[in-house]
Automatic annotation (TrEMBL):
Keywords: ATP-binding, Nucleotide-binding, Transferase
Name this polypeptide is given: tRNA(Ile)-lysidine/2-thiocytidine synthase N-terminal domain-containing protein
Pfam families in the cross-refs: ATP_bind_3 (PF01171)
Alphabetized GO MF terms: ATP binding; transferase activity; tRNA binding
Gene Ontology CC, one term: cytosolic tRNA wobble base thiouridylase complex
Length: 283
């Protein structure tokens, strides 16, 4: 079936704009940082926000993190650079090696899935750089599929306290914690891929070689099969889950890690706990 490119692009942009307006994701004069991996979702987020900068009167910077995955991450970083250059957006780069002293490849086999330490260290570094830049919001490329997968993962692990992290906009719960926003919250992942191909956008399509070991990968496969059999299931699930997005937000208390000083709900943050484990195993 032939796709009307203009109509498709308008639908994608309108969907993101609806989320931005409805949930007041961005206020005038704010600095928004885009977490830019170079993959299709973060690149679409960058393009949409770049188009809206003038109209909504905010500033935009992108941050790319090199986790240190041989034969994979360098292509994503290059895609991030090319898109920022084409749009005239400043790109700030960080890396696990420079910040923590190791690459993700160095941790292979230490955990059930390399996605576990990757998520912990990547979140901390993204927030640290965004805060140093003076950002008011941190925009991520999380799409509708990502949100449902994350919710089911937390549900399966009985991690109820994580429910406050769902939704298109997070509250500011600590002065040093940059609130996250998700403009693609109602956008299907497959539509993001179609957008990139349709518009000949430079993106990194490859899957991380470590992703196959994650619980997310298994849930993603199940949801895709379900959506194929019953179209509309994912959106229905999102609407259902949205009733729980406010769970425990009022009870969330953030302090700082006693070791690194970064925002944390624990006395010692997960990153520092893992750093201790990693240093013991590497020695």
């Amino acid at each position: 079936m032939k796709i009307d490119g203009d109509a498709f692009n308008q639908r994608i942009i309108a969907g993101a704009r609806e989320v931005i307006d409805e949930y007041k994701l961005i206020d005038p004069n704010e600095l928004v940082v885009v977490a830019l991996s170079g993959g299709k979702d973060s690149v679409l987020t960058l393009h949409i926000l770049a188009d809206l900068m003038g109209e909504l009167e905010f500033d935009l910077v992108a941050v790319s993190i090199d986790e240190g995955v041989a034969g994979y991450r360098s292509e994503g970083v290059e895609a991030a650079r090319l898109n920022c250059e084409s749009l005239g957006i400043k790109l700030v780069e960080g890396s696990f090696k420079d910040e923590f002293g190791f690459k993700l490849d160095d941790l292979h086999g230490m955990y059930q899935s390399s996605c576990i330490p990757c998520g912990v260290f990547r979140r901390q570094l993204l927030n640290k750089i965004s805060h140093q830049l003076g950002a008011d919001k941190l925009a991520t490329g999380h799409n509708l599929d990502d949100e449902i997968q994350s919710f089911l993962m937390s549900l399966a692990k009985a991690e109820i306290r994580r429910f406050y992290k769902f939704g298109p906009k997070l509250d500011k719960i600590h002065p040093d914690m940059v609130p996250r926003i998700k403009p693609l919250w109602k956008t299907h992942e497959k539509d993001v891929g179609i957008w990139a191909v349709l518009n000949n956008i430079e993106v990194h399509f490859a899957e991380c070689p470590y992703s196959a070991t994650s619980l997310r990968s298994k849930i993603k496969g199940y949801l895709n099969q379900l959506e194929e059999k019953r179209p509309g299931t994912k959106l229905s699930m999102l609407k259902s889950f949205s009733k729980s997005f406010k769970f425990e937000k009022k009870d969330v208390q953030m302090g700082v890690c006693s070791l690194c000083g970064e925002p944390s709900s624990l006395d010692v943050c997960m990153a520092c706990e893992m750093m201790a484990e990693i240093n013991d195993r590497i020695k």
